[in-house]
Amino acid sequence: MTQKDITFVADFLTEHFNEAPELYNRKGKYFNVERVGQYLKDEDDDLVSPPNTEGNQWFNFLKNSTHLKESPLLFPYYPEKSLHFVKRQMEGVIDQCLQKPSDVIGKSVHQAICMSLYRTSQSEDSTPQLFKLPFLWNDKASNIHYVLFTILENSISKIYILRRHTDTSRSVSNGILAVDFGNFLNNSINESSDSRCYSCLDAHFYDDETVTVVLKESVEQEGKERVLAQLPLS
């Protein structure tokens, strides 16, 4: 070890492990612990070496503010406690804040409708993801919820639109329907249905009356077309 190393260790021991007569009547060791480690102990006891907050700009600001000094919006400061203690205190406050909304929301949610979209095999193998692109939209003018989604496998060229009234006691016509993009971009009915077949890459509502979709040409070839289409919901 170099003399510099020895000096460093000696300074550390001198600073943190001096005898502390004022702690002799206290349970435990009679020495100041290392000042960082004390904050990490999962104990409710007071810190052996609490921080010195004198001159701290934040504390001075709070002390001089008549509005913030007793504000319930500020989390209380515990200068004598470890971070574990503060963490438990904060978790308790957060749990208390979330409990009431959780109870109210939980009691208000109920199943309005059950609709079978597809069936999968009963094997224990991992079930492939068939439900894709769920996008939600709320039309506040007509009080209708929309869900756009696609189902993979045999219907990659279709996009499904699910509609539900925000008032669950009311129903809407065509609660669910599918739009098939297969060969709707073909220039004539004489074109082969396989020559220009499109599948949906993505779909979002543009506004209450318009749906924006990104289509991909399904034929496996270079330079496959991508089409950005805006379709009227009607």
Automatic annotation (TrEMBL):
GO annotation, biological process: anaphase-promoting complex-dependent catabolic process; cell division; protein K11-linked ubiquitination
Record domain Anaphase-promoting complex subunit 4 C-terminal half WD40: where: 136-234
Gene designation per UniProt: Anapc4
Name of one Pfam family that matches: WD40_APC4_C-half
Native source organism of the sequence: Scopus umbretta
Protein name, per record: APC4 protein
Cell cycle among keywords: yes
Keywords: Cell cycle, Cell division, Mitosis, Ubl conjugation pathway
Any one GO cellular component localisation term in the record: anaphase-promoting complex
InterPro entries linked: APC4 (IPR024789), APC4_C (IPR056358)
